[in-house]
Amino acid sequence: MKDKLTLFTKYLLDLMFFSGIVVIVTLPISFKIYGRYNTYFEDNYYSLCVIFIISGIFAILIIQQLRKMFLTVIHDDCFVRDNVVRLQKMSIYSFFIAVITACRLFIYLTPAVLIIILVFVIAGLFSKVLAGVFDKAVTYKIENDLTI
Questions:
Q1: In terms of Cα–Cα distance, which of 42, 47, 20, 43 is closest to 31?
Q2: What is the pLDDT of residue 65?
């Protein structure tokens, strides 16, 4: 049996994945309701819906890749080519979120928007570098397996 932290993380990723889908689907309704209290959301309803829904979809795709990677951790086989591809996809998705969030700068500039852009650029770069590290590890593993 896997340790408790591993199982907790697996269930947390599952919860984030499914609740994220619910949040994305209900976003237009949520923004309509919140628009009654915040005129920024009312005035920019359609733009914000598009930006947040597209960003949310890419965030869900990142979590989906993490869930698939995590299954390889659970099965004690995490140094596989598929994880290199997953990390590369996560990098691309992170950069897309940063670009889409940058579109929000044309609507309203806040420090939070700048921070979100920075976080996803860093996440994209980190995933890109980690993909390279995993690629080397997979190559060494395959060479080692062939030696034995």
A1: 42
A2: 97
Rounded CA separation 94/112 (Å): 16
**E strand intervals along the chain:** none
* DSSP structural state of residue 148: -
The answer to whether the CB of 83 falls within 8 A of the CB of 134 is yes
Tally Cβ neighbours within 10 Å of residue 124: 20
Name the token pair of 42.
């009312």
Locus of tokens 């995590």? 70
| Residue 15: how many other CB atoms lie within 10 Å | 11
**pLDDT confidence band for 53 (50 / 70 / 90):** very high
Which tokens is 29 given?
A: 């309704």
Q: By the 8 A CB rule, do 89 and 130 touch? A: no
Q: Give this prediction's pTM.
A: 0.91
Residues in Cβ contact with 68 at an 8 Å cutoff, skipping those fewer than 6 apart: 82, 86
Distance CA 14, CA 108 (A): 33
Residue 101 has pLDDT above 90, yes or no: yes
